[in-house]
Amino acid sequence: MKVKKLSTVSIEAIDLPALMDKEAVAFQPISCVNWNEYPYRPDVQFRIAYTSDAILLHFKVTEASVRAHYGKDDGDVWTDSCVEFFSIPGGDDVYYNLECNCIGTILIGAGPERSNRQRASHEVTHLVKRWASLGNTSFEERVGETLWEVALIVPFQAFFLHQITSLDGSTIRANFYKCGDHLQTPHFLSWNPIPIEKPNFHRPDHFGVLEF
Q1: What is the SS3 assignment for 153?
Q2: Which residues, in sequence order, are bridge partners of residue 142?
Q3: Cα–Cα distances in Å, from 204 out to 20, 132, 176?
Q4: Of 16, 127, 137, 151, which has the fewest CB atoms closer than 10 Å, so is most exposed?
Q5: CB of 84 within 8 A of CB of 100?
Q6: How confident is the model at residue 84 (pLDDT cuts 50, 70, 90)?
Q7: Which positions ≥6 away from 56 have C-beta within 8 Å?
Q8: Which domain holds residue 159?
Q9: Are strands 4-5 and 43-50 parallel, antiparallel or unpaired?
Q10: What pLDDT score does 8 carry?
Q11: DSSP the chain
Q12: Pair 191, 30: CB distance under 8 Å
């Protein structure tokens, strides 16, 4: 997938959806159900662009219930209504997992494998600007069909094990996910298929390709 570069000096996350509309950045589905025991498929879309110093992400989700237990960064946000962006921006074997619940609470991890991952400090996670349509106050599960959106401005500094100064001309392997481990109907959707037996998003061998 080709990722469009946007020319903008300064933007807030709340304005990102309108900017992407103006720039005709298209949504892509996160719709692969990889494991038969988790057949539920909420409606999930994402779109991605970038600037001279950040990756821009906008997710739109409609699902049967929502949960935002975690209101502070670096918690177990994958148990909430959660969208995720995994990527290998440094051209080596280190991949980053950026996970965000429906109120914009995030965690960022890095490492070459699922175990022994290094978590980003709060100083790093605070660099990520975020907007969430449901606000930023935590809540327990709300049952009933809900549409929600989050927009993230992820500066290159968020990839804290690398010194990334530009993505122009880069080809990066990545995947996008939607999960909700502790929702009434757990689910595990991906953008690029993951043909393995049990749910595991930490599979860089099944990432897709982004061309910047």
Answers
A1: strand
A2: 66
A3: 28, 28, 11
A4: 137
A5: yes
A6: very high
A7: 6, 16, 19, 20, 48, 49, 50, 151, 152, 153, 154
A8: 4-211
A9: parallel
A10: 82
A11: -B-EE---S---GGGHHHHHHHTTPPPEE--EE--TT-----EEEEEEEE-SSEEEEEEEEEEEEEEE---STTS-GGGSSEEEEEEETTSSS-EEEEEEETTS-EEEEEESSSSSPEEPPHHHHTTSEEEETT-S--EEEEEEEEEEEEEEEEEGGGSTTS-----TT-EEEEEEEEE-TTSSS--EEESS---SSS--S--GGG-EEEE-
A12: yes
> What single-letter DSSP state applies at residue 32?
E
What pLDDT, in 10s, does the model give residues 7-57?
Answer: 987 899 999 999 999 999 999 999 999 999 999 999 999 999 999 999 999
Percent over 70 (pLDDT), the chain: 100
For 205, other C-beta atoms within 10 Å of its C-beta total 7
CATH number at residue 64: 2.60.40.1190
Contact between 129 and 152 (Cβ < 8 Å): yes
Is the distance from CB of 202 to CB of 114 less than 8 angstroms? yes
Domain count, the chain: 1
Asked if residues 68 and 80 have their Cβ atoms less than 8 Å apart, the reply is yes
Instruction: Name every residue whose Cβ is closer than 8 Å to that of residue 156 and which is 6 or more positions away in sequence.
Output: 53, 54, 55, 164, 165, 167
Identify the three-state secondary structure at position 85. strand
Amino acid at 69: H
